[in-house]
Amino acid sequence: MKVSAIFLLSVISCACAAILCPPNYCDSMLCEEVTSENCEGRVQEGGSVCGCCDSCIAQIPLGVSCHQTMLLGLPATSECEQGSKCDFMSMTCIAKTCAELKEEQGNMLAALDKPLLGAHLPECEADGSWSARQCTGSKCYCVDEAGKTIEGFGAKIWEAKDMTCGTFFSREILTLPRF
């Protein structure tokens, strides 16, 4: 069984590698216009086979099957929504941890090669989970265990020095300035 699975994977890998784009291939392609108005997802510039045409990438919500993202060698037509990833064990979209998002955003900021005014990386606990208080731009706010904003509780960043949100995790009422 293992040998046949390995053989099948090697055949698929070879077939995917055989998809080559000949020179001037895109010159003969007729591309449909893909815009944010006609795409219910994310527009990927040059996202089709050989990068000839723009494509629409459907966004898969949390908890929904993401097995269709596993088409090896073909351009993606769907992906887990922003802030989530495909869990290969359950084949469903799950939320990224705070640590994963912090690393991802840190890499993006490092690639800019200059500081970005108002940019803040997520605040994470030592175990990679979300800190209860997060700050972005000029505001600080409270988040739940999944890192989702708890509406109505926050403060301007210069007023939030002593702001604590940890009691939200235990569902206690917290008095904070409201936006």
Automatic annotation (TrEMBL):
What does the UniProt keyword field contain? Disulfide bond, Signal
Does this UniProt record's set of keywords contain NADP?
Answer: no
Q: Which InterPro entries match?
A: Thyroglobulin_1, Thyroglobulin_1_sf
Q: Where is the signal peptide?
A: 1-17
Domain annotation Thyroglobulin type-1: ranges: 95-165
Entries under SMART domains matching the protein: TY
Q: What is this protein called?
A: TG protein
Chain coiled-coil ranges:
none
Entries under CDD domains matching the protein: TY
Q: Which gene encodes it?
A: TG
Q: Does the keyword Signal apply?
A: yes
List the Gene3D superfamilies.
Thyroglobulin type-1
